[in-house]
Amino acid sequence: MATTTEVAEAMYAMVKEYHGKKNLKALDLRKAMIEKFGDDNCDKKICKGAIRELIDSGKCTYSYVGGSYIVLPPEA
Amino acid sequence: MSTPAPRKTDIGPPHYEQFLPEVIKKNYGKWKYHERPKPGVLLHVGHSGDKLWSVRAASARLMSIETLRLLADIADEFCDGHLRFTSRNNVEFLVVDESKVDPLIERLNKEGYPVGGTGPGITNIVHTQGWIHCHSAASDASGVVKSVMDELFPYYDGSKTLPAKLRIAFACCLNMCGAVHCSDIAILGVHRRAPVIKHDQLRGQCEIPSTVSACPTGAIRPTTVDGRETVEVIEEQCMFCANCYTVCPAMTLNDPVNDGLSIWVGGKVSNARSEPMFSKLAIPFLPNNPPRWPETVAAVKNIVEVYAKDARNYERVGEWIERIGWPKFFEMTEIEFTKYHIDDFKHAGETYKRSLHFRQK
Amino acid sequence: MAEKLRATPLLDELEKGPWPSFVTEMKKSAAKNPMANDQLGILEHSYRDKIGHWKHGGLVGVMGYGGGVIGRYSDLPEEYPECAEFHTIRVNQPAGWFYTSDVLRKLCDVWEKHGSGLTNMHGSTGDIILLGAKTEALEPVFSDLTEMGFDLGGSGSDVRTPSCCCGESRCEWACYDTMKFTHELTQHFQDELHRPAFPYKFKFKMAGCPNDCVASVARSDMSIIGTWRDNIQIDQKEVAAYVKNGLDIDADVTSRCPTGCIKWDGKALQIDNTNCVKCMHCINTMPKGLAPGKDRGATILLGAKAPIIGGALLASVLVPFYDMEDAEDIYELAEEIWDVWGEHGMNRERVGEFIQRIGLGNFLEQIGLEPEPEMVMHPRTNPYIFFELDEEG
After folding, report:
1. Nearest to residue B57, comparing CAs of B72, B76, B47, B71?
2. Which residue, of A16, A27, B167, B201, has the greatest Cβ tally within 10 A?
């Protein structure tokens, strides 16, 4: 199994890569991570923890534009 | 500097039990029956024989903390500080001492929070924020609600009654935060012009693919203006739902002349007698005419009065119309039937008449 | 601090008449609070030019949560500087909307300290609404609220604040304990409520009986409505008393029964319970004489929503009867639904629209429920059946 922190780092890289191009939802991140790490190494629960880690650390923040997205904080 | 207390999260709402009066704790799940001794008052009787009078007062829903403190003081004076709010924004005082009921009613009426809203009549109008606080409002909410309730007040305080209860709801745009689509009478804010696109703003704030896919009729497509990517709207295909505006703030819809109100009738949510039903279009457009929206007030009052005169006991507006038929509804209310009344969205054909069941003209 | 009130000749018209005036409410706050005073000014401005002056704002909230705060900015910040930022805070209400005067005063004190002093009791979904906070006030309000035992409600693509009727606390018709269920459900799904992870919003509403006083069938993605399976309880003496006191039992009760299963022979009421559809009408008209049966539970319905995007929907039956014995079963059902909808649902597609798109039959298969005739008004009328290819012979 991947650690929550490993998944959080991979998610953060993805949010950065898509910044300014496409807003990502929690579900987009989850699907991408399960694909990246594989079913055996990553699941819903780890992804949930990873998102929480990203948000609680302030590396990412929630945004609302007709739906809830996970984005970089405005100053970043 | 002292260390700050650890931040609390995910504690959820406080447990309701700490706010319940003793009589409710004791009779929880053991109520036997209720009656309505007078307008605005419910009397619940437990299997234990205990009695609880709930005195229901109107509110504007929008309330200052000054008013909430006043309500708290009144609750202290008359019912040991116990009160609750209803799903239609009324406030209920929970009284165990019968001798306090009439003085409480008198006090609430005097303070400007009149008692009523029970039984076969009209109670508070569930409504949305309107111009008070909403970005997509096609009209104000509170002003229309106040104007309609001032006019229909006799049906609230019990001086006039109706064949059955009549629920009015108000939503200031098609997002319908007030989910008015199953009300006896619904007042709904509508836009009537396609969004005006602010291209500079769009570039900074919106994703083009999600803005394009936000449109349920495919009226938005990507284009280029001044050499830069943006979107355009095929106006004939726009049905003014404002979904694109929620997704992209640069698709602005507010229009002082063409925004206004529509009136819908005959919905219900309860299962009593008939199944829950949607409200159907009665009047497609009435102008925004603040501060008192006289056209809208008159339209609602007319429907209420025709219904009051013709419906049988216990017939909700929708049940009454089903009995008399829609042609008669339009004839009796003298509302014009237009092409806008005929559905042209998904599954529209299911609403076309297929029988020869017509009543005499 | 006393404020000089903004001039509001148009709004002043709405202080007349018997119904409580929201303008009076706004003035009460405006007299003490500059934010509320500018808010009064901007509303008068809207009444003059007939358009709203609010913009939605995407990036405000409290740390760690993706919901609970609705960002609002005005488009006239120079004219009305005090309400240039005017965010809404949704505070999760106690189930059933019961309060004591004490707790109400404490809420007022928090809001007096940090915000405009204006509230909604309550918002459409059921929350206590604190109307008008500046961005800098959000964390302090949150901290004071949690200190007194309150938390924020939902907003965005998450579980929205569940709400319910007063149920067994003050209603003899409640067929399950709506307030207890709602409180526990809300506590169970705190993470889903505060950290949006769905294609779009998901609302729960709990009604104790088929009268559905919280409009759950029209207003919630999952609607749990109390009902019963056995016989209506009859007190013949009380029924006779209603008739004696003037109730026209033929016109107003028996002839209004949707299945004609109730008869009055002049002395006693007879109900063919096998044909009763639990509509509540006879019980509503004679609360002393009739009561729901004793074998109680709920029907679970799915998919109601307002028009945006694919048209308004009423909820439809998913579980015809559940005895409400174990809340865990419903939590599991909800999670199954979220998994399927999360995997295949489109952005901003409510679960009701999702079911319309893929078909209820396919949806049932995916969440592992068997089809039952109670789930449809009638079987299909078109012959375009997607027979499965592994069925042969």
Report:
1. B71
2. B167
Residue C361 maps to a domain:
yes
Token look-up 């038929």 returns B325
CA distance B329 to B323: 10
Closest CA to C219 of C152, C165, C173: C165
Q: Is B210 on the interface with A (CB under 8 A)?
A: yes
Q: Which residues of B touch A67 (CB under 8 A)?
A: 247
pLDDT in tens, B124-147: 999 999 999 999 999 999 999 999
Helix H or strand E segment including A62: strand A61-64
CB atoms within 10 A of CB B326: 15
Q: State pLDDT tens for residues B240-254.
A: 998 999 889 899 999
Q: How confident is the model at residue C325 (pLDDT cuts 50, 70, 90)?
A: very high
Structural domain boundaries, residue C347? 163-228+297-375
- Residue A76's pLDDT band, with cuts at 50, 70 and 90, is very low
Nearest to C290 by CA among C338, C319, C254, C326: C254
Nearest-Cα residue of chain A relative to residue C338: A27
Taking an 8 Å cut-off on Cβ atoms, the answer to whether A23 and B210 are in contact is yes
Residue B79: partners with Cβ closer than 8 Å, 6 or more residues away:
B21, B93, B94, B95, B96, B97, B100, B104
CA-based nearest distance C25→chain B, Å: 5
Can you give the CATH number for the domain in which C268 is found?
3.30.70.20
pLDDT at C2: 63
- Alpha-carbon distance of C10 to C229, in angstroms, equals 56
Q: How far apart are CA B146 and CA C22, in angstroms?
A: 8
Any idea which residue has 């807003």 for tokens? A23
Those residues whose C-beta lies under 8 Å from the C-beta of residue B61, and which sit 6 or more positions away, are: B89, B124, B127, B142, C22, C120, C121, C122
Query: Could you tell me the pTM of the whole model?
Result: 0.96
Share of chain C above pLDDT 70, in %: 99
Say whether residue A61 is in contact with chain C using an 8 A CB cutoff.
yes
Domain spanning A4-71 has what CATH number?
A: 1.10.10.10
Q: C55 touching A, CB under 8 A?
A: no
Cβ–Cβ under 8 Å, residues C60 and B99: no
